[in-house]
Fold this protein.
Amino acid sequence: MTALQHVKLGTYYVVNLPEADDFDFWRERARALVQCEVPPDRIAWVEPGGSGDLFSHGERRMPVAPMDARPVRANRRFVSLAKNAILHSDPERFALLYRLLWRLQSNPRMMEDKADLDVRRVEELDKNVRRDSHKMHAFVRFRLVESEDEEVGEHYVAWFEPEHHILRANAGFFMRRFSNMRWSILTPRGSLHWDTETMSEGPPAERHDAPGGDPMEDLWRTYYASIFNPARLKIGAMLKEMPKKYWKNMPEAALIPNLIAGAQGREAKMVEKGALEFEERPDTLAAIDKAIHGCRKCPIGQLDNHAVMGEGPRDAALMIVGEQPGDQEDQTGRPFVGPAGQLLDAHLEKVGIDRRAAYVTNAVKHFKYVQRGKRRLHQNPGAKEIDTCRWWIESEREIVKPKLVLAMGASAARGMLGKTVSISKVRGAPIPLEDGSELWVTAHPSYLLRLDGPAREEQARLFDADLAAVRERLAELA
Amino acid sequence: MAAQTVLQKLEILADAAKYDASCASSGTAKKNSLGGKGIGSTEGMGICHAYAPDGRCISLLKILLTNHCVFDCHYCVNRKSSNVARARFSPQEVVDLTLAFYRRNYVEGLFLSSGIVKSSNHTMEQIVEVARILREEHDFRGYIHLKTIPEADPEIVHQAGLYADRVSINVELPTDSGLTRLAPDKNARQIEGAMGKVKADLVEAKDARKRFKHAPRFAPAGQSTQMIVGADAATDADIVGKASRLYGNFRLRRVYYSAFSPIPDASAVLPLKRPPLIREHRLYQSDWLMRFYGYKPADVMQATEADGNLPLDIDPKLAWALKFREAFPVDVNRASKEQLLRVPGLGVKAVGKILASRRHRALRLDDVARLTQSITKVRPFICTVDWRPVTLTDRADLRSLLAPKSEQLELFAA
């Protein structure tokens, strides 16, 4: 009886595959069956552990292809898809691939027809397997087993549960990556062992065959928790790429619920504390005045003091900015009324600038001091405090829109520029500001108060020169 | 104060690094450790070894060498005037940590950045030293991304490129005025100058390898940069324009956008309200349109609304299509690839499948449905053998019909 007669009699073939991922075996059998013209619905493909008993009456001997049988055609696209799809855990995959191969003989370009149901299914299987492999590359976690035997040295062991029959196909990836490391990957479908020179396969393993932990995991978990930005929670995006089924074998995953809960808690706390109070810029000087009295954004605001608002015309061309209110300013609630203010007034008058036409204010709105007995001693504000207070001086500038800002002292300059500059380097020349106005920097009058003799005379001369330059420039701008 | 442990330092220095968006490990030269003394491989495709609840991929050990910094950039948590906890790793500690993580398959490699200590040159030398120890003493063949400092000596930056797979320099802010205001110690011209130098090095190394097989590689994964979105007043149109200039001028592989997120100990110059995360997403979508869909920057800018920003409720491709309804419907059985790529809901893959399938059959709506994610989104913009959207493209409420209504979903996705 020839092979073809079998087919005509309606023989039902059963092909037992030796391994679930044995593509070469499948290819050889499939080729022979196609050559004998055995249609797809007459073959049962049975993988190890599959339900072979149902087909106990089927023919297990393979038909022999006639000598003049046509060669089997399969294009490269089919072969590359089939090699991957055969690793899928779907028991129907062998039959699907055979059906495709069968149909390819009459329609060699069928693989291009992406709307075909069989083509779609095989592409889906391929995609699932590629994803599973990719996740294996990503989510395998080795744990170190230190051997007492010096010669054996370090051994890294991982437990992984792949969804498909991908273990053997991915041996090469781990070998190329960890070629000088002794490692084993244990899975429920089998295991791999690499001893830095040869790869060997072992039987299926169980979770407890692998080590239960690794001291490095504390560091890894710390890293995982720290690199997470709680201000941006995108749980859906995480779950899409790292589904929960993988979590049980990833040491860092146990942290996730707490990280999420913590993030929401932190955000809630921020809202509660009213941390968003700076959200809207005040749009009138009165609103600024009101707001600075309640400002507690920096430690200066916590002291026993009062905010001092700037004063002067709302449309002043010149804005004069000092450092912060002093003791007298704090008590009277007006800027530049103490000794430094009086000195400033004298110099302004001498140079010919009308203080009443200028808007006079401070970079920092509250008086910073330390208590010494009954006296409150002035303290310079810190860079951070100045930066925090920048919000207010900028709000004032936005309303008054001066053409020229005169910053007196390093603190005032920082309040305008956001960085610390050296007075001696920047004085005497305009610095353009982004709103189109310009900044001039000079010393703070209280600096003159601390000097004596020729040094004071010299500084007073420079101060006057700066004021004169400002007066000239103002006239030009007017 | 007792010396900090590695664990404490890691906590501080990983925390400090998290505002950098990039974690890519793809697109570099293929290499593996066969025949070498060490470990490591890169096979083209990047691998995300974990995902954090912020949805971002963890591919590399992303840390700072130190978060001490002499600069005072307002958007940065590590600026001089901020009072965060400070720490400093030695180069050897970073090397040990990288190798320990790599052996356990936690990461693809290292992404090292640093605050500026002492001087830019000193800092850059320390960064390069880490890469040198990894590559030369441990024969490490995994991925290394080094952040380079624009103010550092070009020669040291060049060294970095010889060890690293990728180098990056952050432009930080989309506008020069934003940079002056928020990063007073930085200089836009210097940053672009450094990027230009890296580009020249990339071109030169590539050219040398064409002629000499063993010419050294220079940053085979190219250079990238990052922009902070929402810290200054730049509109999406500004940002898209800036990004396309950067792609063009410096051969960047990627421009990353990082939605400004309120940082602990924030400077008062910054808005405390965070920009919607979706804005960053829309910018990435427009980036995709320019890189893979043949959109010109001008096309993307046309999709913006009156305020210069992309709409937040719909994606930029749909926004463009709604503005240019006369370009639709497109006949899937006849239209060119370029036309199909403009159809909202059709991705590059779906277009490829349509082009292949229509040689075999005249596509019906059901066929298209099988090739795409969602036919509802595509339907108003296409014709098939059995389908023609008669009035749909003219409907005024089309936008609301197509805009996703799933705003809330994210919260409950877990």
